[in-house]
Amino acid sequence: MQTIVNLVLRMALENRSWGYTRIQGALANLGHEVGRGTIANILREYGIDPAPEREKHMPWSTFLRAHWECLVATDFLTIEVCTIKGLVTHYVLFFIDIASRAVKIAGITPHPDNRWMTQIARNLTDLNDASFAASAI
User: Fold this and answer.
1) Higher-confidence residue: 53 or 117?
2) How far apart are CA 105 and CA 96, in angstroms?
């Protein structure tokens, strides 16, 4: 039964214009007799819209899989550093390559102001120094 479910899901996701009847026919060509209602129930259970709606929007998971190799996320984290003057908060800007899950540190500063962020952006987009951009993302 799981084989049928997997086939229905794969056909629906890879062929976004196929409706229940088209999927039913494709399954019959593979030697599986499955009713339209069963196909509809499987797709509903896994949150997949019927064919006309499926073409109108792409699920986030499908978009991510399609663009996995070129996606990078970024965020800040904070670190408390003990100094002679007391605790000082440092901000760490980091990037995560989604496909490899590699984390790269772009910069650390106690004052992430406009000037600092502009310099980080320059470092990341500097075509003459591709080593930093490649290592940061």
Assistant:
1) 117
2) 9
